[in-house]
Amino acid sequence: MLRELCKNGLEGLPHPDAMVNYGAKNAVEKLRGTSLVPRDVYTYYDFETFKFNFPKTLAKGVRVLKQNRGSTGEGIWRVETIGEIGNKKEIPLKTKVKCTEAKDNHVEEWELGEFIDFCVQYLDGENGMLLDMPFLERITEGEIRVFMLRDKTMNVVHKKPASGPDAFSATLFSGAKYRYESPDKWPDLINIVQGSIPLIREKLGNYDIPLIWTADFILDTDKDTYVLGEINASCVGFTTHLELSDDVADEVIRLMEADSVVNRNWMAFQN
Ligand SMILES: Nc1ncnc2c1ncn2[C@@H]1O[C@H](COP(=O)(O)OP(=O)(O)O)[C@@H](O)[C@H]1O
Ligand SMILES: [Mg+2]
């Protein structure tokens, strides 16, 4: 319905396809080859490819599997082998794995093959997919959310997972602590985000940048670089929106005025 409305001249902020493309979990994989994400990230759209490849990536170390739908850590699994596995190119399907879900940091033990079968649900239906990326252990230091109003950084949220041996989730309901910080405290990261906007835009399909979006980062394991974990273009989960409402309104007006120069169909300009 939103697509139809946009087709008929209503301005979507953002356009629904922009929202889908920026917010999808495969955005990380589409940025592969850039310094924003690790090299070994994969997206699976069908069960056979997932079942074929995941035992190989898991042989390289602990992985995070992310379903595309949902938020707040549901269907986001850290997967690690249990016990000594030696130097294998591929983890046998009978191997025991420990799976921790970011929703609440709860742990389940599975046989790898059975866990892979369980994940088939995440591949079903429209936009079903699984992102497979390395687990970044410095998540314990926090996930750093850069909160954007189009191309402006509004604030930075430092989200620290709960303490506890299995906790890796920076989602609010799992007990993570959120601290809102001024962008001035994170100059390097802000430079990276601002400087990457044209690249992000191009790699994700050349849609207009969303009105409100976030880029979430985790520190890399052995170098002090920031790794993009996901982009959110809907349900960004901020609680201080009234503070931002003036800025949001200004941005919308600015966009409408800019658009009116080229688009005379706006209702507001017809009399
Ligand atoms: N590669 C990763 N390494 C370590 N922790 C991760 C990784 N990816 C995600 N997480 C953790 O899992 C949480 C949920 O994952 P995320 O990609 O943000 O999905 P969503 O917020 O849509 O549920 C993150 O907040 C973070 O704490
Ligand atoms: Mg998240």
Structure in words:
This protein has 271 residues and is of the alpha+beta class. β10 and β11 form a beta hairpin. It has a six-stranded antiparallel beta sheet. The chain has one domain (2-262): D-amino Acid Aminotransferase, Chain A, domain 1 (2-Layer Sandwich), CATH 3.30.470. The protein contains seven helices and eleven strands. It binds adenosine-5'-diphosphate and magnesium ion. Magnesium ion binds at residues 216, 230.
Protein topology:
Layout: H1 2-7, H2 16-23, H3 27-30, E1 42-44, H4 47-58, E2 63-67, E3 76-81, E4 96-101, E5 106-111, H5 112-118, E6 130-134, E7 143-149, E8 152-160, E9 177-181, H6 187-203, E10 212-219, E11 226-232, H7 241-262
Antiparallel strand pairs: 1-6, 2-3, 2-6, 3-4, 4-5, 7-8, 7-10, 8-9, 10-11
Bound molecules: adenosine-5'-diphosphate (ADP) and magnesium ion.
Count of DSSP strands: 11
Give the overall silhouette.
globular
- Count up the domains: 1
Strand order of the largest sheet: 1-6-2-3-4-5
CATH superfamily: ATP-grasp fold, B domain
**Bound ligands, named by name, code or SMILES:** adenosine-5'-diphosphate, magnesium ion
Under the CATH scheme, which class?
Alpha Beta
Assembly context of the chains: single chain
SSE run:
HHHEHEEEEHEEEEHEEH
Average pLDDT score? 91
Residue runs with pLDDT of under 50 for 5 or more positions: none
- Give me the CATH fold name: D-amino Acid Aminotransferase, Chain A, domain 1
**CATH arch. level architecture:** 2-Layer Sandwich
The percent range for strand residues is 15-25%
Helix content: 25-40%
